[in-house]
Amino acid sequence: MVRRKKIGIFIIFGSVVLASSLLIGYLISENSKYGLISSISAVFIGGNMLVGLYQLVSTDRNHTNIGLGEKQDQDSKQNEEDDSQETAKSNQIGPSKSLRPEQIQAQNELIRTAYDEFEENPFTFMLTYQASGVVEEVAEQINADKEIVSKVWQFCKDDEYFRKRGNSWRLAPKALYRAEELGVETRLDEDIQDKILNSLLQEYRDNPHHSPVGQETLLETIAGEKKTILQNLWFLCEKNYVEREGYIGGAWFEITKLGRRVAE
Length: 264
What we know:
two-stranded antiparallel ribbon, Arc Repressor Mutant, subunit A, mainly alpha, disordered N terminus, about 260 residues, 3 domains
Protein backbone atom coordinates (compact mmCIF):
# COMPACT_ATOMS: atom_id res chain seq x y z
CA MET A 1 0.00 0.00 0.00
CA VAL A 2 2.81 2.43 0.91
CA ARG A 3 4.69 1.53 -2.27
CA ARG A 4 1.65 2.22 -4.48
CA LYS A 5 1.08 5.56 -2.81
CA LYS A 6 4.68 6.62 -3.41
CA ILE A 7 4.58 5.53 -7.05
CA GLY A 8 1.37 7.54 -7.50
CA ILE A 9 3.02 10.63 -6.03
CA PHE A 10 6.03 10.08 -8.30
CA ILE A 11 3.82 9.90 -11.43
CA ILE A 12 1.84 13.02 -10.53
CA PHE A 13 4.86 15.09 -9.52
CA GLY A 14 6.87 13.80 -12.47
CA SER A 15 4.13 14.82 -14.88
CA VAL A 16 4.05 18.31 -13.36
CA VAL A 17 7.85 18.66 -13.67
CA LEU A 18 7.87 17.48 -17.28
CA ALA A 19 4.96 19.72 -18.29
CA SER A 20 6.59 22.70 -16.57
CA SER A 21 9.85 21.99 -18.41
CA LEU A 22 8.09 21.91 -21.77
CA LEU A 23 6.22 25.14 -20.99
CA ILE A 24 9.40 26.90 -19.89
CA GLY A 25 11.20 25.62 -22.96
CA TYR A 26 8.42 26.91 -25.20
CA LEU A 27 8.42 30.36 -23.55
CA ILE A 28 12.21 30.58 -23.79
CA SER A 29 12.19 29.56 -27.44
CA GLU A 30 9.61 32.25 -28.22
CA ASN A 31 11.63 34.96 -26.53
CA SER A 32 15.16 33.80 -27.16
CA LYS A 33 17.26 33.88 -30.24
CA TYR A 34 18.60 30.45 -29.36
CA GLY A 35 15.10 28.97 -29.64
CA LEU A 36 15.40 25.17 -29.97
CA ILE A 37 18.60 24.90 -27.92
CA SER A 38 16.97 26.68 -24.98
CA SER A 39 13.90 24.45 -25.21
CA ILE A 40 16.02 21.29 -25.24
CA SER A 41 18.02 22.55 -22.25
CA ALA A 42 14.85 23.15 -20.24
CA VAL A 43 13.55 19.67 -21.02
CA PHE A 44 16.96 18.18 -20.12
CA ILE A 45 16.90 19.94 -16.74
CA GLY A 46 13.36 18.68 -16.11
CA GLY A 47 14.41 15.16 -17.04
CA ASN A 48 17.29 15.28 -14.54
CA MET A 49 14.88 16.42 -11.84
CA LEU A 50 12.61 13.50 -12.74
CA VAL A 51 15.46 10.97 -12.51
CA GLY A 52 16.52 12.41 -9.15
CA LEU A 53 12.99 12.10 -7.83
CA TYR A 54 12.77 8.47 -8.98
CA GLN A 55 16.04 7.61 -7.23
CA LEU A 56 14.75 9.22 -4.05
CA VAL A 57 11.55 7.15 -4.15
CA SER A 58 13.50 3.94 -4.92
CA THR A 59 15.94 4.54 -2.07
CA ASP A 60 13.13 5.19 0.35
CA ARG A 61 11.36 2.04 -0.83
CA ASN A 62 14.50 -0.02 -0.28
CA HIS A 63 14.81 1.36 3.21
CA THR A 64 11.21 0.43 3.82
CA ASN A 65 11.81 -3.13 2.60
CA ILE A 66 14.92 -3.45 4.73
CA GLY A 67 12.99 -2.27 7.73
CA LEU A 68 10.26 -4.78 6.98
CA GLY A 69 12.82 -7.58 6.77
CA GLU A 70 14.31 -6.60 10.10
CA LYS A 71 10.83 -6.53 11.59
CA GLN A 72 10.12 -10.04 10.26
CA ASP A 73 13.40 -11.30 11.71
CA GLN A 74 12.51 -9.80 15.08
CA ASP A 75 9.05 -11.36 14.93
CA SER A 76 10.57 -14.74 14.04
CA LYS A 77 13.01 -14.56 16.96
CA GLN A 78 10.20 -13.53 19.28
CA ASN A 79 8.10 -16.50 18.15
CA GLU A 80 11.00 -18.85 18.80
CA GLU A 81 11.44 -17.39 22.28
CA ASP A 82 7.71 -17.72 22.95
CA ASP A 83 7.76 -21.36 21.78
CA SER A 84 10.74 -22.03 24.03
CA GLN A 85 9.01 -20.46 27.01
CA GLU A 86 5.83 -22.40 26.23
CA THR A 87 7.78 -25.66 26.12
CA ALA A 88 9.43 -24.84 29.43
CA LYS A 89 6.01 -24.26 30.99
CA SER A 90 4.35 -27.31 29.40
CA ASN A 91 4.60 -29.32 32.63
CA GLN A 92 3.44 -26.45 34.83
CA ILE A 93 -0.33 -26.82 34.69
CA GLY A 94 -1.97 -25.64 37.90
CA PRO A 95 -5.72 -25.88 38.55
CA SER A 96 -8.23 -24.70 35.99
CA LYS A 97 -8.88 -20.98 36.06
CA SER A 98 -12.02 -19.48 37.61
CA LEU A 99 -12.75 -22.50 39.82
CA ARG A 100 -13.93 -22.02 43.36
CA PRO A 101 -11.96 -23.73 46.17
CA GLU A 102 -14.42 -26.63 46.49
CA GLN A 103 -14.31 -27.10 42.71
CA ILE A 104 -10.50 -27.14 42.70
CA GLN A 105 -10.61 -29.82 45.39
CA ALA A 106 -13.01 -31.86 43.28
CA GLN A 107 -10.86 -31.44 40.17
CA ASN A 108 -7.70 -32.51 41.99
CA GLU A 109 -9.42 -35.62 43.34
CA LEU A 110 -10.91 -36.46 39.96
CA ILE A 111 -7.44 -36.41 38.41
CA ARG A 112 -5.93 -38.51 41.22
CA THR A 113 -8.72 -41.08 41.07
CA ALA A 114 -8.66 -41.30 37.29
CA TYR A 115 -4.89 -41.72 37.32
CA ASP A 116 -5.09 -44.62 39.79
CA GLU A 117 -7.29 -46.53 37.33
CA PHE A 118 -5.27 -45.36 34.33
CA GLU A 119 -2.01 -46.65 35.84
CA GLU A 120 -3.15 -50.26 35.63
CA ASN A 121 -3.19 -50.11 31.83
CA PRO A 122 -3.25 -46.75 30.02
CA PHE A 123 -4.39 -48.31 26.74
CA THR A 124 -7.54 -49.86 28.19
CA PHE A 125 -8.49 -47.10 30.64
CA MET A 126 -11.61 -45.22 29.60
CA LEU A 127 -14.46 -43.25 31.11
CA THR A 128 -18.01 -42.76 29.90
CA TYR A 129 -19.36 -39.36 28.92
CA GLN A 130 -20.76 -38.82 32.43
CA ALA A 131 -17.96 -40.72 34.24
CA SER A 132 -20.63 -41.76 36.74
CA GLY A 133 -18.53 -44.22 38.74
CA VAL A 134 -15.59 -41.85 39.20
CA VAL A 135 -17.84 -38.87 39.94
CA GLU A 136 -19.67 -40.78 42.67
CA GLU A 137 -16.41 -42.07 44.15
CA VAL A 138 -14.87 -38.59 44.27
CA ALA A 139 -18.02 -37.04 45.74
CA GLU A 140 -17.89 -39.59 48.54
CA GLN A 141 -14.15 -39.16 49.14
CA ILE A 142 -14.31 -35.38 49.57
CA ASN A 143 -17.82 -35.36 51.05
CA ALA A 144 -19.13 -33.08 48.31
CA ASP A 145 -22.39 -32.82 46.42
CA LYS A 146 -22.38 -35.11 43.40
CA GLU A 147 -23.70 -32.26 41.25
CA ILE A 148 -20.61 -30.17 42.04
CA VAL A 149 -18.26 -33.00 41.05
CA SER A 150 -20.26 -33.65 37.88
CA LYS A 151 -19.85 -30.01 36.82
CA VAL A 152 -16.13 -30.16 37.54
CA TRP A 153 -15.88 -33.30 35.41
CA GLN A 154 -17.24 -31.27 32.51
CA PHE A 155 -14.70 -28.51 33.24
CA CYS A 156 -11.93 -31.14 33.17
CA LYS A 157 -13.00 -32.15 29.67
CA ASP A 158 -13.21 -28.52 28.59
CA ASP A 159 -9.65 -27.94 29.83
CA GLU A 160 -8.41 -31.07 28.01
CA TYR A 161 -7.38 -33.12 31.01
CA PHE A 162 -9.32 -35.81 29.20
CA ARG A 163 -9.63 -36.48 25.46
CA LYS A 164 -12.45 -38.10 23.60
CA ARG A 165 -11.67 -41.37 21.82
CA GLY A 166 -14.68 -42.79 20.03
CA ASN A 167 -17.50 -42.94 22.57
CA SER A 168 -15.24 -42.80 25.63
CA TRP A 169 -12.91 -40.38 27.36
CA ARG A 170 -9.21 -41.07 27.99
CA LEU A 171 -6.64 -39.37 30.17
CA ALA A 172 -4.45 -36.77 28.41
CA PRO A 173 -0.74 -36.09 29.12
CA LYS A 174 -1.78 -32.79 30.69
CA ALA A 175 -3.57 -34.74 33.44
CA LEU A 176 -0.37 -36.61 34.26
CA TYR A 177 1.54 -33.34 34.60
CA ARG A 178 -1.16 -32.07 36.92
CA ALA A 179 -1.11 -35.32 38.91
CA GLU A 180 2.64 -34.88 39.45
CA GLU A 181 2.00 -31.37 40.77
CA LEU A 182 -0.44 -32.93 43.24
CA GLY A 183 2.26 -35.27 44.54
CA VAL A 184 1.37 -38.34 42.49
CA GLU A 185 4.38 -40.35 41.34
CA THR A 186 3.64 -41.13 37.71
CA ARG A 187 5.67 -43.62 35.72
CA LEU A 188 6.84 -41.18 33.06
CA ASP A 189 10.53 -41.78 32.46
CA GLU A 190 12.57 -40.13 29.69
CA ASP A 191 15.18 -42.90 29.76
CA ILE A 192 12.51 -45.52 29.15
CA GLN A 193 11.05 -43.40 26.36
CA ASP A 194 14.47 -43.12 24.71
CA LYS A 195 14.95 -46.89 24.89
CA ILE A 196 11.56 -47.48 23.31
CA LEU A 197 12.23 -45.02 20.49
CA ASN A 198 15.71 -46.42 19.85
CA SER A 199 14.38 -49.98 19.73
CA LEU A 200 11.60 -49.06 17.29
CA LEU A 201 14.01 -46.96 15.23
CA GLN A 202 16.40 -49.90 14.90
CA GLU A 203 13.53 -52.10 13.77
CA TYR A 204 12.64 -49.51 11.14
CA ARG A 205 16.22 -49.35 9.88
CA ASP A 206 16.35 -53.14 9.61
CA ASN A 207 13.05 -53.32 7.76
CA PRO A 208 11.75 -49.91 6.61
CA HIS A 209 8.89 -51.44 4.59
CA HIS A 210 7.33 -53.23 7.56
CA SER A 211 8.61 -52.40 11.02
CA PRO A 212 5.84 -52.89 13.65
CA VAL A 213 6.92 -54.55 16.88
CA GLY A 214 4.55 -56.61 19.01
CA GLN A 215 3.78 -55.41 22.52
CA GLU A 216 5.15 -58.54 24.20
CA THR A 217 8.35 -58.37 22.16
CA LEU A 218 8.82 -54.75 23.14
CA LEU A 219 8.19 -55.54 26.82
CA GLU A 220 10.90 -58.20 26.66
CA THR A 221 13.34 -55.87 24.88
CA ILE A 222 12.98 -52.91 27.25
CA ALA A 223 14.16 -53.54 30.78
CA GLY A 224 11.67 -52.36 33.37
CA GLU A 225 8.32 -52.96 35.01
CA LYS A 226 5.47 -53.67 32.62
CA LYS A 227 3.26 -50.83 33.91
CA THR A 228 6.12 -48.35 33.51
CA ILE A 229 6.89 -49.43 29.95
CA LEU A 230 3.22 -49.33 28.96
CA GLN A 231 2.72 -45.86 30.40
CA ASN A 232 5.71 -44.49 28.53
CA LEU A 233 4.60 -46.25 25.36
CA TRP A 234 1.20 -44.60 25.79
CA PHE A 235 2.88 -41.23 26.29
CA LEU A 236 4.90 -41.63 23.07
CA CYS A 237 1.71 -42.53 21.21
CA GLU A 238 0.00 -39.41 22.58
CA LYS A 239 2.94 -37.35 21.30
CA ASN A 240 2.62 -39.00 17.87
CA TYR A 241 6.14 -40.39 18.12
CA VAL A 242 4.81 -43.95 18.03
CA GLU A 243 1.78 -45.42 16.30
CA ARG A 244 -0.22 -48.20 17.92
CA GLU A 245 -2.44 -50.74 16.20
CA GLY A 246 -4.45 -52.81 18.63
CA TYR A 247 -5.93 -56.25 18.15
CA ILE A 248 -7.55 -58.83 20.42
CA GLY A 249 -4.97 -59.90 22.95
CA GLY A 250 -2.24 -57.41 22.11
CA ALA A 251 -0.97 -54.58 19.96
CA TRP A 252 1.71 -53.57 17.46
CA PHE A 253 3.85 -50.47 17.80
CA GLU A 254 5.73 -48.63 15.06
CA ILE A 255 7.83 -45.47 15.14
CA THR A 256 6.42 -42.54 13.16
CA LYS A 257 8.25 -40.08 10.94
CA LEU A 258 8.13 -37.54 13.76
CA GLY A 259 9.43 -40.16 16.18
CA ARG A 260 12.35 -40.93 13.87
CA ARG A 261 13.32 -37.26 13.75
CA VAL A 262 13.27 -37.13 17.54
CA ALA A 263 15.20 -40.38 17.98
CA GLU A 264 17.84 -39.59 15.36
